[in-house]
C-alpha cells in the first residue's frame, strides 16, 4: 500500500503535515472510537505503520527508494496509544503559529547553527547580555510528567544543567581568569551593582550550560567588592565577555589588576 495515500498527503509533505494528517485519521479510526468494528485494530495498525515510517527521516528515505521491501527489517507501527492521547497530547503545538516543531534533521541543523553563532559572535566579541534562552542540543531524552507551565518546565530542565557558575572576588578572580585564559577559554562575567541590569542566578546558570566549553561564566557582587569592580571600570550592573588573551596588565584595560 502507498503510505502517502493512506495518510492522504503528498510525497513532499513536511513532518508537521504528516503528523497533522495522521492525527486527523487517528481521531476517527482509533479502535477506542470504533468498538463494534472487528477490523478497527488492523486498520489502525496500517495507518500507524505508515505514520511511524514517514515521520522518521531515515525510514522515509528507505521507503521512498525501495518501497516496503526496504523496510523488511523494521518493526515500526505495532503499538499505539489510547484515543485520549491522540486527542489531548499528540501534536498539540502543530496549530500554534508561534511554535516550530523540528524533526531530528532540522533540530541538529538548528543546534549547529546556534553553536556557530555563539562561537563566532558571542565568544570573540565584547557583549552586554540580556536574557538568552537555549535548548541544550544532543542530550539524552528525559520523560516529563508534570504540568506544562513555564515555571514547572524550567524547574525540570534546570536540574540537568550542572555547569558551575563561579562567584568572583578579590581572592580568586585573577587566578580563575589566568587559568581559563591559559586553556584558551574566555570569561563571561555578570557584574552586579546597585543600578543597572544584573543577570539573575538562573539566567547565569542557563548561560553556563549553553556556553560550556566555550567560556566560563561568573558573577561579581559590586556592593560587596566596590573597589574590585571599579578596577574593571564597572560603575553599574552589566554583563561582559572577555575573550582569552585579554590583557590583565595593559593600562586602560577593563582587566587591569587593582
Automatic annotation (TrEMBL):
This is DnaJ-like subfamily C member 10. Residues 2-67 form the J domain. The chain crosses the membrane at residues 109-127. The keyword Nuclease does not apply. GO terms for molecular function: misfolded protein binding; oxidoreductase activity, acting on a sulfur group of donors, disulfide as acceptor; protein-disulfide reductase activity. One of its GO terms (biological process) is IRE1-mediated unfolded protein response. One of its GO terms (cellular component) is endoplasmic reticulum lumen. CDD domains: DnaJ. It comes from the Eukaryota. Keywords: Membrane, Transmembrane, Transmembrane helix.
Amino acid at each position: 500500500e502507498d503510505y502517502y495515500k493512506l495518510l492522504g498527503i503528498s510525497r513532499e509533505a513536511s513532518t508537521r503535515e504528516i503528523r497533522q494528517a495522521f492525527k486527523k485519521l487517528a481521531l476517527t479510526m482509533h479502535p477506542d472510537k470504533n468498538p463494534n468494528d472487528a477490523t478497527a485494530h488492523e486498520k489502525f495498525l496500517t495507518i500507524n505503520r505508515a505514520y511511524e515510517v514517514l515521520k522518521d527521516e531515515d525510514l522515509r528515505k528507505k521507503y521512498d527508494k525501495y518501497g516496503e521491501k526496504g523496510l523488511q527489517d523494521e518493526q515500526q507501527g505495532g503499538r499505539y496509544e489510547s484515543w485520549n492521547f491522540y486527542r489531548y497530547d499528540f501534536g498539540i503545538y502543530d496549530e500554534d503559529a508561534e511554535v516550530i516543531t523540528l524533526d531530528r534533521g532540522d533540530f541538529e541543523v538548528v543546534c549547529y547553527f546556534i553553536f556557530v553563532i555563539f562561537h563566532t559572535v558571542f565568544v570573540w566579541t565584547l557583549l552586554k547580555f540580556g536574557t538568552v534562552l537555549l535548548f541544550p542540543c544532543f542530550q539524552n531524552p528525559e520523560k516529563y510528567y508534570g504540568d506544562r507551565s513555564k515555571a514547572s518546565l524550567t524547574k525540570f530542565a534546570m536540574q540537568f544543567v550542572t555547569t558551575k557558575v563561579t562567584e568572583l572576588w578579590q581572592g580568586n578572580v585573577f587566578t580563575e581568569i589566568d587559568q581559563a585564559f591559559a586553556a584558551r577559554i574566555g570569561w563571561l562575567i555578570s557584574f552586579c551593582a546597585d543600578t543597572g541590569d544584573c543577570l539573575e542566578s538562573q539566567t547565569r546558570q542557563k548561560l553556563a550550560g549553553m556556553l560550556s566549553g566555550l567560556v566560563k561564566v561568573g558573577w561579581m557582587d559590586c556592593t560587596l567588592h566596590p573597589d574590585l569592580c571599579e578596577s574593571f571600570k564597572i560603575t553599574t550592573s552589566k554583563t561582559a565577555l572577555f575573550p582569552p588573551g585579554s590583557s590583565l596588565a595593559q593600562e586602560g584595560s577593563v582587566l587591569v589588576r587593582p
